[in-house]
Design a protein that fits this description.
The chain is an all-alpha fold. Helix content is 74%, strand content 0%.
């Protein structure tokens, strides 16, 4: 399906904002990249600020629909191996999805200028992940999959290293494969320490960890 003009403008804005920042993006150049005049663009958005806010709205909806959030939780894993699988699916998405990579760069640049960008950066880089995994870990404890502990502290301990590895991929893309492997190794180490192993899980999960 062909993209509408507004969607094309937002795609181009994401490309330029993620490279040059809000202040470094010129509306005339943005319009020119789409083969439009400045006045034509203003028929769709009244200002650069309106483009900025519409773009953030779109990125929030895109992220939550595909990744999850404290308000839209993915299903609680039914096994320790499912936790690893879910985690690595999230890592793969955040590292390889072009729109998410650009949005992360955009927030990293603009968090020091724009209050909304700062709030979203805090949520997506730290608090949102911790809140989401706090609830997931509490659910796994209720299912007898994780030993009883403070789920918020476990969530912070689990998400912080993985988040750091994702940011490493942004800074040094040549280390992406190594970082993803480290994330999986860490996830398996975590379930080895905090998982409640039963006979069914141990034959699969422990063998996987030993590889």
């Amino acid at each position: 399906m062909a993209k509408g003009t507004k969607e094309r403008i937002l795609d181009a804005a994401l490309e330029m904002f993620s490279q040059y920042g809000f202040a470094g993006t010129n509306i005339r150049e943005l319009a020119g990249s789409l083969g439009m005049g400045k006045s034509s663009m203003y028929r769709h958005f009244e200002s650069k600020e309106e483009i900025w806010n519409a773009l953030l709205d779109e990125l929030v909806a895109y992220y939550e629909a595909r990744f999850g959030s404290p308000e839209h939780l993915p299903p609680v894993p039914n096994s320790l191996e499912e936790l690893v699988t879910m985690t690595m699916r999230m890592v793969d998405f955040t590292v390889h999805d072009e729109k998410i990579v650009k949005s992360r760069k955009l927030l990293s640049i603009e968090q020091f200028r724009d209050e909304r960008a700062r709030s979203l950066a805090t949520k997506h880089f730290l608090t949102g992940l911790t809140e989401m995994f706090t609830r997931l870990f509490a659910g796994m404890m209720d299912k007898g999959l994780l030993r009883r502990d403070d789920p918020a502290m476990l969530a912070f301990a689990y998400t912080a290293p993985i988040s750091a590895l994702i940011h490493l991929c942004d800074r040094e893309p040549e280390k992406t494969a190594e970082a993803i492997a480290q994330a999986e190794a860490f996830s398996r180490h975590f379930i080895k320490i905090y998982g409640v192993w039963n006979n069914e899980q141990s034959s699969v999960g422990r063998d996987q960890h030993a590889k």
